[in-house]
Write a structure and sequence with these properties.
The protein is α+β, with helices and mostly antiparallel strands. It has four domains: 158 residues, Immunoglobulin-like (Sandwich), CATH 2.60.40; 247 residues, Orthogonal Bundle (Neutral Protease, domain 2), CATH 1.10.390; 110 residues, Immunoglobulin-like (Sandwich); 121 residues. It has 30 helices and 26 strands. Strands 5-4-7-2-1-9-12-11 form an eight-stranded mixed β-sheet. Helix 15 runs parallel beside helix 17. The protein is globular, with a radius of gyration of 29 Å. The protein starts with a helix and ends with a helix. About 2% of the residues have low confidence. GO terms for molecular function: alanyl aminopeptidase activity; metalloaminopeptidase activity; peptide binding; zinc ion binding. This is Aminopeptidase N. One of its GO terms (biological process) is peptide catabolic process. InterPro entries: Aminopeptidase_N-like_N, Aminopeptidase_N-like_N_sf, Peptidase_M1, Peptidase_M1_aminopeptidases, Peptidase_M1_dom, Peptidase_M4/M1_CTD_sf. Its EC number is 3.4.11.2.
C-alpha cells in the first residue's frame, strides 16, 4: 500500500513538473502570440504614468520616468515587460518596493515572480526613452507606435488586447506646444521650461498612445459644438488661410455622420489633430490626437478633384477609426485589416454629402480597384486575413489588400445582407464590444443572423484566400436564339467567388441595349436572346461592383464613349489596363499593344472632361509609357504624345485644376528637346503663355527634380537654384537631403545610396523614398541596376527599423519602374539564395517585382510576335 501510494505521488510530481515546464513562456524577440495570450489572461486594470523630459539640445537624450500599475491574477511565473532598447537606456527598476537588477533579455524586462503578488502591483522605472519611434527632430517630435513600436520608446505590455489608461507629463522647451490623448490638465512655465500635465486618457490600446510636441502653430475652433485644436508648421499663410476652414468642416461633418450612423456619441474625451511635415503615412488615428501628413491636408492652389476627395477621404478615414479601431479594437494584429476596412468603407460613404456633384461610385472604383488588383494579380498575393505568430511581423499585414480589396469585399457583403441589416449589425457590433477587443468572426456571427446565406463559407473565400477570379464570355446559337454565357474561373484553385455585378450588351444591328444583374457563382450565367442579337458588344461589370479580370472591350472606347456613363467609362478603363498587362493575352484577336493603348489614351484625354477619369487614364499612361515601351518606341511616339498633352493643357480646358493635371502628365512623359526646353523656361520664368496655369513652390520643386534627370548638363544649376527658392525650412531640409539623388554625377548618387545603409539616414522615410525615385528613374536604370540587389539585402533591416509601410514602399520605389528581365532574375536569385527568408517579406518582394516581370514578358512576347 505504501509502495503504491509512493508511486502515485511520484507520478503526480512528474506530471506537475512536466506541466510546469510546458507552461513556461519563452523569452523571444517581439511579442509572441503565446506571450500575448498569457498576459491577456492574467493582467487587468493596467495604467501607465509617464513623464518625458525633452531637452532643447537635440544631442541630449530624453529622460523618462514610468509608474506602471496593474492587477495580476497569477504570480507563479515571471512576467515579461516589453522594451526594445539597449541596456544602457535602463537606469532603475523597483517592483512593489523592491529594487530589481537591471537586465533586458531579448527585448524584454523580466519582472521576477518573487517580486510580484496577486492583485495590485506597482513597477517604477527610470530610463532614457528609446527614440526610434519618437520621430525626434531638432524642433519637434511625434510618437508613432503602430503596430508594436511603443516598446521601442518605453517599457510596456505592447499588445492591442491589453487596453490601458495613460497619465502623461511632458517637460519641454518653453516655446513648444503639445497635444496628447487626454486634455491638458495644467500647463506651467518655469526656468525656461514648459510642463504639460494631461488628464488620464480613455481606455486605449498601446499602439494608440501618442503625443506631439514642438514648435507648432496652434489653432482652436469650435465645430458643431465640439472644440478642436490643430497644430501645424506651415509658413505659407495664404495656404493656411485657403485650407483651414474646410479642414475643420470636414472633421466636424465626419463626426456628425458617424454619430448618426453608429448611434453612439463621440466616445472619447477630446478631438485634436496635428499636421506634420513628411509624416510617414497619410494619417494615424491616435485617440484625441490624430496625426496627418501636412501636404495631404494643406493643398496647393488649384487642387484636382482627386486631391480634394483624397483629403476628405483621409479625414473621414481617421475619424471613422475613433469608432472602428479605437472604441472597438482588433484582438490581435492578424485582424488589423478590420479597423482599416471599416475606416475606408465608411469613409467612402461619409464624403458623399460634402461633394454632392461627384460620382461616388466612380470615386470608389478608381480609389480601390486598381490598387487591389495590383497585388492580387501577383505571385505574392496575400489573403485579407493572415496568420501572425509574433507582433514583430505585424507591419507586413498592411498593404493594398486590407486598404483596397477589403472595402470591395465589404461592399459585396453589405449588398448581400442589405444596407439596413448591415447598419443594424454594425451598431450591434460596436455596442457589444465597446472599449473591448473583437475578431472578424465576432462580426460574422452577428451578421450571419441577418441573412440566409452562409457567411462563414462566403468569408472563407473572400477573406481567407488570396487572388481574384477570371471571367470569360462565350456566345453560341441555339435554334432561333443567341445565348451569351458568362463563366467564372479561378486560375489558382477551384474556388468560387460569390458576388453581384452587372453586364451590359449593345446590339450592333438594332442599336438597343440589354443590362442584366448577375449573381456570379459556380454555374455560368446565361442570357438568352433572340436572333437579332447575333452581333453585339459587351461591357462586363458595367456597374463596377464585380471583382476579377473581365473580358476586354477596347472597341467600346471609340464606338460608344459618349454614350457611356462615367462609372461605365471607369470600369471599362480599369479592365482594359488589366488585360493590357497580361502577357498571355498577346497574340489573341483584338488585343491592343502598349503603343496602340497610348493612342487610345490620347483619344480619351482629348474627349474626356471628368477629372477622376482623366487622373485614372493619365496614371495608366505614365506606367505604360515607362514600363511597357522600349526606348525606341518612346522616342517614336513622344513628339505626338507631348503635343497632345500640351494641347489639352493649353487649349481644351479653362479649369485650373484640370490644366495642372495635364501639366503634370506633360512634365512626366516629356523627353524631346523642344519640350524639355519649354519646361525649363516654365521652371525658370513661369507658365508664360499658358493661361490659367498656376505653379506652387511644390510644383516648381517637382519640376526641378524631373529636369535634373532629363537635362543632366543643367542638373547642377537647376538643383542649386531651386534650393534658394524654397522658403519653408522643413521643405528646404528635405530638398537638401535629396540633392545628391538628383545629381547627374553617378558617383554622387552612389554615395547617396551607400548612405541609406546607415539607419540614421533613413529616419525620414518619405525623403528616402523620394530619393529612391530619383535613383531608379527609367532614364537612369543603366546606372541604377546595381542598387537592386543591395536594396533587397537591406530589406530585413528596413523591416525591423522602419515603420509599417516602409518595406513595401522601399521595394516599390526600387523595383516598380523596371522592365528588364535582368531585374526579375535578380529577384529570383535573391529569394533562391535565401530559402528561409521571411514569408511576409518574400510576398512583398514578389508583389513589388510584378510589374518588372510583366513588362519584360510583354516586351518579349511582342518581340517574338513581330519576328514571326
Amino acid at each position: 500500500m505504501i509502495k503504491k501510494n509512493f508511486l502515485t505521488l511520484l507520478l503526480i510530481l512528474i506530471l506537475v513538473a512536466c506541466g510546469s515546464k510546458e507552461e513556461v513562456i519563452e523569452i523571444e524577440k517581439g511579442v509572441s502570440l503565446e506571450l500575448a495570450n498569457y498576459r491577456k489572461e492574467v493582467l487587468s486594470i493596467v495604467n501607465y504614468k509617464l513623464e518625458f523630459r525633452v531637452p532643447r539640445d537635440f544631442n541630449q537624450r530624453i529622460q523618462a520616468l514610468e509608474d506602471l500599475s496593474f492587477n495580476l491574477s497569477d504570480n507563479t511565473k515571471d512576467l515579461q515587460l516589453d522594451f526594445k532598447e539597449s541596456l544602457d537606456h535602463l537606469k532603475g527598476i523597483i517592483v512593489n518596493g523592491v529594487s530589481q537588477d537591471l537586465a533586458i533579455e531579448n527585448e524584454h524586462i523580466v519582472l521576477k515572480k518573487e517580486n510580484l503578488k496577486k492583485g495590485f502591483n506597482r513597477v517604477e522605472l527610470n530610463f532614457f526613452a528609446g527614440e526610434s519611434s519618437l520621430n525626434r527632430k531638432e524642433d519637434f517630435l511625434y510618437t508613432l507606435f503602430v503596430p508594436d513600436r511603443a516598446r521601442t520608446a518605453f517599457p510596456v505590455f505592447d499588445q492591442p488586447n491589453l487596453k490601458a489608461t495613460f497619465e502623461l507629463t511632458l517637460d519641454l522647451p518653453e516655446d513648444w506646444s503639445a497635444i496628447a490623448n487626454g486634455p491638458i490638465y495644467t500647463a506651467t512655465i518655469k526656468d525656461g521650461r514648459k510642463t504639460y500635465e494631461f488628464q488620464k486618457s480613455d481606455l486605449i490600446s498601446t499602439y494608440l498612445f501618442s503625443f506631439v510636441a514642438g514648435e507648432f502653430e496652434s489653432i482652436t475652433r469650435s465645430v458643431a459644438g465640439r472644440e478642436m485644436t490643430m497644430l501645424h508648421r506651415e509658413t505659407d499663410e495664404e495656404k493656411v488661410k485657403r485650407n483651414i476652414d474646410f479642414i475643420f468642416y470636414l472633421h466636424g461633418a465626419s463626426l456628425q455622420w458617424l454619430e448618426q450612423y453608429t448611434g453612439i456619441k463621440y466616445p472619447f474625451k477630446k478631438f485634436d489633430f496635428a499636421l506634420i511635415p513628411s509624416f510617414q503615412y497619410g494619417g494615424m488615428e491616435h485617440v484625441g490626437a490624430i496625426q496627418y501628413r501636412a501636404s495631404s491636408l494643406f493643398l496647393d492652389e488649384d487642387p484636382s478633384q482627386s486631391r480634394l476627395l483624397g483629403r476628405a477621404s483621409l479625414i473621414a478615414h481617421e475619424t471613422a477609426h475613433m469608432w472602428f479601431g479605437n472604441l472597438v479594437t482588433m484582438d490581435w494584429f492578424n485582424d488589423v485589416w478590420t479597423k482599416e476596412v471599416f475606416a475606408n468603407f465608411m469613409a467612402a460613404k461619409m464624403v458623399n454629402p460634402s461633394f454632392p456633384t461627384i460620382d461616388h461610385e466612380l470615386n470608389f472604383l478608381v480609389r480601390h480597384y486598381p490598387s487591389a488588383y495590383g497585388v492580387d494579380r501577383t505571385k505574392g498575393a496575400n489573403p485579407i486575413r493572415q496568420y501572425l505568430p509574433n507582433l514583430k511581423e505585424a507591419g507586413q499585414m498592411y498593404g493594398p489588400i486590407i486598404y483596397n480589396k477589403a472595402p470591395i469585399m465589404m461592399r459585396q457583403l453589405e449588398k448581400l445582407v442589405g444596407e439596413d441589416k448591415f447598419q443594424e449589425g454594425m451598431r450591434e457590433y460596436l455596442s457589444a464590444f465597446s472599449n473591448r477587443n473583437a475578431t472578424w468572426p465576432d462580426l460574422i456571427d452577428i451578421l450571419d443572423q441577418k441573412t440566409t446565406t452562409d457567411l462563414k463559407e462566403w468569408s472563407e473565400v473572400w477573406v481567407n484566400t488570396p487572388g481574384r477570379p477570371d471571367f470569360s464570355l462565350s456566345v453560341k446559337k441555339e435554334e432561333q436564339n443567341v445565348v451569351a454565357a458568362l463563366y467564372q474561373n479561378d486560375p489558382k484553385s477551384d474556388r468560387v467567388w460569390p458576388q453581384s455585378l452587372k453586364m451590359k450588351l449593345y446590339n450592333l444591328q438594332q442599336q438597343s441595349i440589354k443590362e442584366s444583374t448577375i449573381n456570379s457563382g459556380g454555374e455560368p450565367f446565361e442570357l438568352k436572346m433572340d436572333s437579332n442579337w447575333e452581333f453585339f458588344e459587351a461591357l462586363v461589370n458595367s456597374d463596377g461592383m464585380g471583382y476579377g479580370l473581365f473580358p476586354p472591350a477596347y472597341q467600346l472606347v471609340q464606338s460608344r464613349w459618349s454614350a457611356l456613363s462615367d462609372l461605365e467609362k471607369g470600369t471599362l478603363i480599369v479592365n482594359l489596363y488589366e488585360n493590357l498587362i497580361e502577357p498571355e493575352n498577346y497574340g489573341k484577336e483584338g488585343q491592343y499593344t502598349p503603343e496602340q493603348y497610348v493612342g487610345l489614351i490620347k483619344w480619351m484625354v482629348v474627349k474626356e472632361k471628368n477629372q477622376l477619369i482623366l487622373n485614372l487614364v493619365l496614371g495608366q499612361l505614365n506606367t505604360v509609357y515607362w514600363n511597357l515601351l522600349t526606348p525606341d518606341q518612346r522616342n517614336r511616339i513622344s513628339p505626338d504624345l507631348e503635343r497632345t498633352l500640351f494641347h489639352a493643357m493649353n487649349d481644351l480646358t479653362e479649369d485650373p485644376a484640370i490644366k495642372k493635371t495635364f501639366f503634370n502628365a506633360f512634365r512626366n512623359v516629356s523627353i524631346s528637346k523642344v519640350n524639355l526646353d519649354r519646361l525649363y523656361n516654365i521652371w525658370k520664368t513661369g507658365p508664360g503663355p499658358i493661361q490659367g496655369l498656376r505653379l506652387s513652390e511644390n510644383d516648381k520643386t517637382s519640376l526641378a527634380g524631373q529636369l535634373a534627370i532629363k537635362m543632366p548638363d543643367r542638373a547642377g544649376e537647376i538643383i542649386h537654384e531651386q534650393l534658394t527658392r524654397i522658403s519653408n525650412p522643413d521643405r528646404k531640409k528635405r530638398f537638401e537631403f535629396l540633392m545628391p539623388a538628383m545629381s547627374s554625377d553617378v558617383a554622387e548618387r552612389d554615395t547617396f545610396f551607400e548612405s541609406l545603409k546607415d539607419e540614421k539616414n533613413r529616419e525620414t522615410e518619405s525623403w528616402v523614398l523620394a530619393g529612391l525615385g530619383f535613383l531608379h528613374h527609367p532614364l537612369r536604370q543603366e546606372s541604377s541596376l546595381k542598387y537592386v540587389m543591395p536594396s533587397l539585402e537591406l530589406l530585413q533591416e528596413i523591416q525591423i527599423t522602419g515603420d509599417i509601410f516602409f518595406p513595401s514602399r522601399w521595394l516599390g520605389q526600387t523595383l516598380g519602374r523596371y522592365n528588364q528581365e535582368e531585374v526579375t532574375e535578380i529577384i529570383d536569385d535573391f529569394l533562391a539564395a535565401n530559402p528561409n527568408y521571411s514569408e511576409q517579406l518574400a510576398m512583398k518582394v514578389r508583389q513589388s517585382g510584378d510589374m518588372a516581370l510583366r513588362s519584360s514578358q510583354v516586351l518579349k512576347k511582342l518581340s517574338l510576335l513581330q519576328n514571326q
